[in-house]
């Protein structure tokens, strides 16, 4: 019996200390492998400029996700969710079934159909923070922490956060350490390994 116990301890790989090295969890950021050809990603995968779209590197697997975008410079832009089939060189997005986005003019588009619209007096400006919640059915929008009561739905499949820019727009992505507290029950995007 003692020999079997010793063997088990000795088989742990590091001389029996019992410590197992854990892999560092990846950081959610914009994915330079899934971006338009004229897109520029800087600030450690958090800032987008140029022309085109970019997906985040983590799909929205959990039930209730929250993420934010800060408008650093106005222009043509859009934020929301999309599948990996989206055409990242075609702006504005929301023209097909592969993206559901809030556009810079306050409209929310999916499959070339306006699904909703922000109130006229609530159009995002330079310096504003756009919060997005997604629960696999409905996308909701927040402006500087305030619920815009502007739900939209319709997209199917595995989706990722998406942002696109054109006409000198610059946006920063915030996937953790948020400017505003996420709505109750919603949290930062987790990689699949973090959920289980």
Commentary on this structure:
- The chain has helices spanning 2-10, 192-195; strands spanning 30-35, 38-42, 47-56, 65-73, 76-82, 99-103, 107-110, 113-117, 129-134, 138-143, 146-147, 152-153, 160-166, 170-174.
- Residues 1-15 have low confidence and may be disordered.
- The protein starts with a helix and ends with a helix.
- Strands 1, 2, 3, 4, 5, 6, 7, 8, 9, 10, 11, 12, 13 and 14 form a 14-stranded antiparallel sheet that branches.
- The protein has 2 helices and 14 strands, in the order αββββββββββββββα.
- It is mainly beta and 196 residues long.
Which percent range describes the beta-strand content?
A: 35-45%
Q: Sheet with the most strands?
A: 14 strands, antiparallel
Helix content: under 10%
Total count of helical runs of at least 4 residues = 2
What's the pLDDT, averaged over the residues?
90
What is the helix/strand order? HEEEEEEEEEEEEEEH
The secondary structure category is mainly beta
How many beta-strand elements? 14
Low-pLDDT regions:
1-15
The N- to C-terminal Cα distance equals 35 Å
- Gyration radius from CA atoms, angstroms: 20 Å
Q: Could you say which overall geometry the principal axes of the C-alpha atoms support?
A: globular
Main traits of this protein?
196 residues, mainly beta, 14-stranded antiparallel beta sheet, 40% strand, globular
């Amino acid at each position: 019996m003692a020999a079997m116990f010793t063997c088990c301890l000795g088989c742990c790989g590091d001389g029996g200390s019992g410590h197992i090295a854990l892999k560092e969890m990846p950081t959610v950021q914009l994915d330079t492998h899934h971006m338009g050809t004229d897109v520029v990603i800087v600030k450690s995968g958090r800032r987008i400029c140029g022309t085109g779209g970019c997906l985040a590197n983590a799909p929205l697997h959990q039930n209730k996700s929250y993420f934010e975008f800060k408008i650093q410079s106005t222009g043509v832009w859009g934020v929301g969710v999309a599948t990996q089939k989206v055409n990242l060189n075609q702006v504005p997005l929301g023209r097909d079934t592969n993206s559901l986005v809030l556009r810079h003019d306050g409209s929310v588009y999916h499959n070339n159909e306006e699904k909703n619209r922000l109130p006229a007096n609530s159009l995002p400006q330079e310096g504003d923070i756009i919060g997005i919640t997604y629960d696999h059915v409905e996308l909701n929008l927040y402006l500087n922490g305030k619920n815009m009561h502007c739900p939209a739905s319709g997209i199917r499949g595995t989706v990722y956060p998406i942002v696109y820019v054109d006409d000198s727009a610059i946006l920063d992505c915030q996937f953790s350490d948020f400017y505003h507290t996420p709505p109750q029950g919603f949290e930062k995007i987790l990689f699949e390994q973090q959920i289980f």
